[in-house]
Amino acid sequence: MNRNLQHFFNVLWKSLLFWSLAMGLFGVFRYFGIRDDEGFSVTGDFAQLHTSTIVLHHVFTGLAIGFLYATIDFIFERFGSKKVSLGLSLIIKTITYFISTILVFTLVLEIFSELGQININNEIGWWRTNKTFWAILLYVVLLSLVFAFIKIAVEKFGKGVFLKMLLGKYKNPKEEKRIFMFLDLKDSTTIAEQLGHFKYSQLIQDCFYDLNNVVPKYDAEIYQYVGDEAVLSWPYKKGLANNNCVGLFFAFQQQKWEKSEYYLEKYGVIPEFKAGLHGGVLMVAEVGIVKKELAYHGDVINTSARIQGECNKHNVHILISEELLKDLKVGGIFSSKSLGKVLLKGKHKEVKIHTIQMT
């Protein structure tokens, strides 16, 4: 399955789940038990409907909102400029959400009016004076902020990690098996001297924008940015699945070559990156109070960094430890070549390394 389509469905099911639950709960909050409350009376078409039917209507509305919002988010993520400021992006998205919400409610009212269950005015401009619509819109806006916060937190800490942090799983160090990739700009010193610090910073920005386009498609987590280097990580099984940890590197390379004219015109160079990959067991712990984050400790990280440092010596773009390569099913479009044993800096035992190429 196309990875873009996979990514869309991943965004879609989360949005559908969140908004169907959110709107269903709104129906419960607003209508459950209202007939029995002293001082309240329900008249008109709603008086004939059971609370469960009303809640079902809201769930249906939530599914429609979830589908539209997921589509909008995916289009913005796929085709929107990453260089647009956060404020401008929020304004554009808010306007788009507002128009989409009106369309959703108009469609829902039309459907249920046609079914003969509810007779509500759904003529053009109905929403301007409809108090229920504005109450729901305020609820949707607040929930949108909650959803955005959750997405930011998940992107910051990695999939599945945010919930574990809320539950305090990493208050004490935990053992995990992960794959790490150290990704570094090749000939960075020379390029920095040629471009100057301002244009060099722009180049790094552009490179990491391109990297972020491929990261979600390969289930990777960005652990750190350090200057012109990015450190990526996968839970061990996710990194092995579909050769994600290797495929990401070549997808990133392809992304830059597709924009080669842009890079040559703006910077006079097509940036190349080198990568080192290794995996194994290490410790993960929650550190800090201000700017709290997860930190990984162990030989896996040091070994990954040292392997990446061997790329220039062997004149290759990507190196991987034999230990990790044995667990990968490299084949099809990928082939590996052994480069023998190397004694990495700070290590007492030699490590077997391989390079990987696309066939």
Automatic annotation (TrEMBL):
The chain crosses the membrane at residues 12-34, 54-76, 88-112, 132-154. Coiled coil: none annotated. One of its GO terms (biological process) is cyclic nucleotide biosynthetic process. The keyword Transmembrane applies. The keyword Transmembrane helix applies. Keywords: Membrane, Transmembrane, Transmembrane helix. InterPro entries: A/G_cyclase (IPR001054), Adenylyl/Guanylyl_Cyclase_3/4 (IPR050697), Nucleotide_cyclase (IPR029787). GO terms for molecular function: adenylate cyclase activity. Residues 179-308 form the Guanylate cyclase domain. This is Adenylate/guanylate cyclase domain-containing protein. It comes from Flagellimonas aquimarina.
